[in-house]
Write a structure and sequence with these properties.
The chain is built from 10 helices and 6 strands, in the order E-H-E-H-E-H-E-H-E-H-E-H-H-H-H-H. The protein is of the alpha/beta class and 219 residues long.
């Protein structure tokens, strides 16, 4: 991660905005602008041309989906721009709209509670800037709850691996998380992809996109 990674941050809460700005500066990001609404976000991105945009979903004036609409507009104008959206609640439909922008890469959908774990938050940002896709596991779990077969055929451990896979973790990282061997994780991932009818691949982000594409289909 280069010290020159430029970020535009949009968050209407002053304390959280200042806190995020401080965290980003500590971990090698340059905050080019920190703004409080969707219009300011669009203007700041046009002026600063950042490598990464981080935005809340609900901002003034209506506090509905201003941040999401701004993020989608930015992705439409520059599909490869890295965008991470923060949400207070699990909103799978918003995640789906964001993931459908561009080619689904360089996208993150995280719950604000995740910001409490700074290491995980920074790791997620770096994954997105690096070309990956990261979706909060709670969003994945919500989608899983409403899926019928073949998701119902997944074992509890396979569901656990699936949630971590959707976060963008490699087999090695998942193995460390679950305190199992990497070979065991590889077997679980193979079983998951087979049960979901998805193609095998060695590219972690392609696996993430395949799983998320499946989960976004009609339930």
């Amino acid at each position: 991660m280069s010290d020159l990674t430029r970020v535009v941050l949009a968050e209407d809460g002053v304390l959280l905005r200042e806190g995020l700005s401080g965290v980003l500066a500590r971990f090698g990001f340059t905050v080019a602008a920190a703004v409080g609404d969707g219009d300011e976000l669009l203007a700041a991105v046009a002026a600063e041309d950042p490598e990464l945009v981080i935005t809340d979903i609900r901002m003034p004036p209506s506090f509905t989906d201003e941040g999401l609409r701004a993020a989608l507009a930015l992705r439409a104008a520059a599909p490869s721009r890295a965008v991470v959206v923060l949400s207070q609640y699990v909103q799978p439909e918003y995640a789906a709209r964001l993931l459908d922008s561009g080619d689904g890469r360089r996208i993150g959908y995280l719950l604000k509670d995740r910001v409490v774990d700074i290491a995980e938050f920074v790791a997620a940002l770096r994954t997105v800037v690096g070309g990956g896709t990261v979706v909060d596991p709670d969003v994945v779990r919500r989608l899983l709850q409403h899926r019928r077969d073949p998701v119902s055929e997944l074992s509890p451990r396979e569901r656990e691996v699936l949630a971590l896979l959707a976060e963008g973790h490699s087999n090695a990282a998942i193995a460390r998380r679950l305190t199992v061997t990497e070979a065991a994780v590889g077997k679980h991932v193979g079983n998951i992809l087979a049960k979901l009818g998805l193609p095998q691949t060695d590219d972690t982000n392609r696996r993430v996109l395949a799983v998320l594409a499946y989960l976004r289909t009609t339930r």
